[in-house]
Every structure is written in structure tokens, then in C-alpha cells.
Specification:
The protein is an alpha/beta fold. It is built from 9 helices and 6 strands.
């Protein structure tokens, strides 16, 4: 059961043609319980272990240290070790997507949302495309803004949000950003977007939580979006 939104002073976004709905990918458009990102997490550890010739315990420490200090593990590997980002992404995204299944409820909800719909991800387009295809929702999005388009500067780098809105010519005041990583919503709110934190129980999901920059919270994406659909401008 979806818990109530905790900030009722913020009105729900209206289902209107000028709206722009911005979705994170991992653990947002698919359920975190399927643990797809767990496969990626494990592959990152293997990559670092091989790269630095260290055991998996040390690789894990490096991985999470770079994640915290650089925004993503990849950004840390680029900055500290000069890693080829394409090589890294190809390796960590070589995973089994059979844990995902078509999500007819999400597809119907997206079809009922008026306005533009984008995916804004720290992954890359080939991987994002595979995930969206598996979920049966690839046709519901106007475009994907990925880590390569961001010149490998991940969320929550402010420059990346500016590049995103410029790339798609988005008015941030009309945009709603939905994301499972609380810290990634801070720059979005600062730009004028309405922000939605999807609470998944993921260990790092509440890192950098700042209530001043989170307008809505939910633990069920489709239920929350359906509430918005009922609000017509």
C-alpha cells in the first residue's frame, strides 16, 4: 500500500499538455525488488577488482567511495584512473534482464499522462533502451538523456541538469522529476522543477536527503502518477 505523501502543502502536478515528466531509470521505472541494479553493482566490483588487482572487499570499498565522492563509480574511475567509460559501461551492463517483465499498468499510466516524457539516467542509451523494451514502455518516451550525452558528468552535477534542460528545450518550471536517489533531486528543485522521491528502501536512496528540495514522496510510482492524472488543469 502506498503511504500518503508527506508534504501536502505542495499541490500535485496537474495532468496538462505543457508538463514535462522526467524519470530516472534504475530502481524507478522498474521495481527495486527485482534487484537488477544488484547485478550491475556486482559487475562494478568485478571491474574494479580486475583493474586495480585487489580483492573484492577492497574493490567494494573503492567502488562506494567513488560513488559518494564523485557522483558515480564511473566518474571516480575516470577522474582517478583514466578508465575508458565505454569499456566500463559495456562491461557492467552485460547483465540478465530476465528478472524484468512487461509492465502493462505502468504503460497505461504513462499513456494517460499528458505532456512530454523523458528518461534522465546515469546509465547509457543502449542499456536504457534494453530495459525500456523489456518493460514494454520504450514507445512512451520522447527521448533519453544518458551519461554519455552528459559528457560522463553524472547526476547530481548541476551542469548535467542544465545540459539536460537545454538538450530537450525544457522549461524547468513545467517539469516534474521522479527519482529514487534523494540527492539527485536537489539540483532539480533548485532549477524550479517539482521533485518526487520514490522511496525504494535502497541503501543509498536517502543519501543526501534534503527535505527542502523534495516536494513529494511515494513508495509506489504508478499509484502516485495516477493521482496526478486525476488533476487536470
Amino acid at each position: 500500500m502506498d503511504r500518503p505523501l508527506i508534504k501536502n502543502e505542495y499541490p500535485l502536478p496537474a495532468n496538462r499538455p505543457e508538463a514535462c515528466w522526467v524519470f530516472d531509470l534504475d530502481n524507478t521505472l522498474y521495481p527495486a525488488e527485482c534487484n537488477l541494479f544488484g547485478q550491475i553493482d556486482d559487475k562494478m566490483g568485478a571491474f574494479i577488482s580486475n583493474l586495480l588487482d585487489v580483492d573484492r572487499v577492497e574493490a567494494r570499498r573503492v567502488q562506494k567511495d567513488y560513488f559518494v565522492r564523485h557522483g558515480t563509480t564511473l566518474r571516480g574511475l575516470i577522474d582517478v584512473h583514466g578508465v575508458d567509460p565505454v569499456e566500463f559501461l559495456d562491461f557492467v551492463h552485460d547483465i540478465d534482464l530476465e528478472v524484468l517483465s512487461e509492465d502493462a499498468a505502468l504503460r497505461e499510466t504513462l499513456q494517460n499522462l499528458r505532456g512530454r516524457k523523458m528518461v534522465f539516467t546515469n546509465g547509457d542509451i543502449p542499456y536504457a533502451g534494453r530495459v525500456l523494451d523489456k518493460l514494454g514502455i520504450a514507445g512512451e518516451f520522447e527521448g533519453i538523456f544518458d551519461i554519455s550525452t552528459a559528457a560522463y558528468h553524472p547526476k547530481p552535477y548541476t551542469r548535467t541538469y542544465k545540459a539536460f534542460v537545454n538538450h530537450f528545450e525544457i522549461n524547468p518550471n513545467n517539469a516534474v522529476m521522479i527519482e529514487d536517489m534523494a540527492r539527485n533531486l536537489v539540483p532539480a528543485a533548485q532549477m524550479g522543477m517539482t521533485t518526487v522521491w520514490l522511496r525504494t528502501g535502497y541503501k543509498w536512496g536517502d543519501a543526501g536527503y534534503n527535505a527542502d528540495h523534495i516536494h513529494h514522496e511515494t513508495d509506489h510510482l504508478v499509484s502516485w502518477l495516477n493521482q496526478c492524472i486525476e488533476v487536470v488543469a
